[in-house]
Amino acid sequence: MLHVGVIGTGMIGQDHIRRMTQVLAGVEVTAVTDVDAAVSRRVGDLAGATVHATGEELIADPSVDAVVVCSWGPTHEQYVLAAIAAGKPVFCEKPLATTAEACLRIVEAEAAHGSRLVQVGYMRRYDSAYRELKKILDAGDIGLPLMMHCAHRNASVPSHYEKEMAITDTAVHEIDMVRWMFGTEIKAARVLVPRKNRNGGDLQDPLFLILETANEVLVDVEISVNIRYGYDIRGEIVGEHGTASLGSLSPVTVRTSLRAADPVPADWRERFLAAYDVEFQEWIDAISRTGTPAGPSSWDGYAAAVVSDAAVAALQSGSRVEVSLAEQPKLHGASA
Ligand code: NAD
Ligand code: ISE
After folding, report:
1. How many angstroms separate the alpha carbon of residue 14 from the centre of ligand 1?
2. Which residues, in sequence order, are CB contacts of 188 under 8 Å at separation 6+?
3. Which ligand 2 atom lies nearest to the CA of residue 165?
4. 310/188 same-domain check
5. Which residue puts its alpha carbon closest to atom 6 of ligand 2?
């Protein structure tokens, strides 16, 4: 049985605690913490977990074998570094940290530790539709990939959501997915800005992000975060002699009153429900078997942050911005 401590008991923290206590096997949530003590007390009592005053106290708790970080992005670095210092595996929700420099500090601390401890919550890699798309691509069924068209649409976003978060918090999922899907780094980013959605207040919404991969695939991502009608994630790869796209979201279409309708998910919890389950079960199994995670690494978290920084710079300057990565440590695949 893997004993897990969860830092941050907000929306996704509660959802991951629910799946670890009610859905998945081989795991027990033994400790929780949140800066909002009332929330962590309520969530901890429900889960039958010890409630700690701070993340550091939770990490030091001997009843915690592994740590899950679900607090706000700017707090991720301190907790991931503390878990590495304690030698405990740590699953960190995306983004790994909010700056590329902070992500690099995590990569370096893990490399100095000498074995992998960190996994980042890029759950699209566990979604059955994205996995099928990659299988088709890798089998060569549509020829070499040339382009990919994506859309990342949120019905709405919380009031603390700022302009750059369309890239650093939202499109960062496509940035990670593209690196994984095409098995290559992203070399440059551009951002085009259409007229504003009047639902978006001060936000520059939508945005049109263009990524260039190192092997010359062009990827466009429409990022709309106030589209009202629901949560809609799209992706179509254009190959040399065919295309492959994420399918319809619903196994059932309802036809009535001269209309045909597919339900649209309300938010990420509904759309990626099964992907989060698979992501966590694979993480629990890997840590229980080997003590080492096998999913998206701190290097993946770092690379996504560097590309998202380049995209933010492209948004601010209106120009094409090249991506420049640090040297990859041996632990993450660089050859000696
Ligand atoms: P949220 O605001 O609902 O919850 C965050 C919680 O962290 C809050 O309860 C807050 O009090 C707590 N917190 C803040 N600072 C803290 C600290 N120093 N120590 C302990 N707790 C602290 O936000 P959320 O939507 O649950 O997002 C949390 C993280 O999960 C973010 O990094 C976000 O990007 C990520 N996320 C990922 C996905 C995904 O699809 N993988 C979806 C949503 C959110
Ligand atoms: C949120 O943090 C997520 O990660 C969701 O998957 C994404 O769709 C949303 O835009 C983010 O704010």
Report:
1. 10
2. 211, 212, 310, 320, 321, 322, 323
3. 12
4. yes
5. 268
Q: Per-residue confidence at 146, pLDDT binned at 50, 70, 90? A: very high
Segments forming the whole domain that contains residue 198 = 127-266+304-322
- Looking only at the bridges linking them, the beta strands covering 66-69 and 90-92 are parallel
d(CA 190, CA 205): 16
pLDDT tens-digit profile of 76-130? 999 999 999 999 999 999 999 999 999 999 999 999 999 999 999 999 999 999 9
The answer to whether residues 72 and 137 belong to one domain is: no
Rounded CA separation 227/224 (Å): 6
Q: List 28's β-bridge partners, or say none.
A: 3
State the distance from the centre of ligand 2 to the C-alpha of 94, rounded, in angstroms. Answer: 9
| Phi, psi values for residue 224, rounded to 5° | -125, 125
* H/E stretch holding 278: helix 273-290
Kindly state if the Cβ of 268 falls inside 6 Å of ligand 2: yes
Distance from the CA of 268 to the center of ligand 2, in angstroms? 7
Same domain assignment for residues 74 and 91: yes
CB 96, CB 302: distance < 8 Å: yes
